[in-house]
Amino acid sequence: MAKFPTQAEVTVQVAASREKTYAFLWDVVGSSKCIPGLAGCTPAGDDTYKFVFEERSAGPVSLTVQYTAGYSGNGKDEIRFVSTETEGDNTDIDGLIKLRESATGTEIVLTQTVAPDTPVPRLVQGLIKSFVEAETKKSLEDYLGNVKTELDR
């Protein structure tokens, strides 16, 4: 299987305080409802969570992304998550959420690298890589858009 590590960074401004924003994002299962295409997020240990997404297709390739990630935070303005090597997982993830206070609330900066195992022949890997890159960026934008909607209520 081929892996296509793709990094994206997205920023959004929310009206909530940094403390409220951190608490919302630190509740991983609760805030996971903001992740587009997520079929489920369940605890898998201390500060560790299993994510399973709905099946996605791109031409001849179908994939159900699944990973387990450990979370660590400083209790104030940073949350890091990184995949663990768990049986059945098919995607590596590495991300960082930074929160910055602003005059109107909090700025959220999410940087993420995702690398799914993609069962594609070498001849079409270039086409799939561009699809993965576009999907990664769009997913982060949609996720933070949903987080903004929740926190701006």
Report on the architecture of this protein.
This protein has 153 residues and is of the alpha+beta class. The chain is 26% helix and 46% strand. It has one domain (2-151): Alpha-D-Glucose-1,6-Bisphosphate, Chain A, domain 4 (2-Layer Sandwich), CATH 3.30.530. The chain is built from 3 helices and 10 strands; from the N terminus they run ββααββββββββα. Strands 1, 2, 3, 4, 7, 8, 9 and 10 form an 8-stranded antiparallel β-sheet that branches. A hairpin with a 4-residue loop joins strand 7 and strand 8 (78-83).
**Count of beta strands:** 10
Could you tell me the mean pLDDT? 90
- Gross morphology is globular
N-to-C SSE string, H for helix and E for strand: EEHHEEEEEEEEH
Total count of domains:
1
- The CATH topology name reads Alpha-D-Glucose-1,6-Bisphosphate, Chain A, domain 4
The level-1 CATH class: Alpha Beta
For the report, how would you describe the main beta sheet? 8 strands, antiparallel
Number of distinct helices: 3
Proportion of β residues?
over 45%
Helix content: 25-40%
Task: State the end-to-end CA separation.
Answer: 43 Å
Identify the CATH architecture: 2-Layer Sandwich
Structural class by secondary-structure content: alpha+beta
CATH superfamily: START domain
